[in-house]
Amino acid sequence: MRKIIITGSNGVGKSSFASELSSARPEIPVVSFDAVKLRTGWQQRARLEIDAALAQELENKAWILEGGPSLLPQAVSQADALVWLDPPELVRAWQIAARPWKFLGKTRPELPPENVDWPWQQYKFALRSLRNRSNFRKYISAAFRSADGLEKWRCHNKEDRAAVLRKWAQREPD
Question: Is the Cβ–Cβ distance between 100 and 124 less than 8 Å?
Answer without folding.
Answer: no
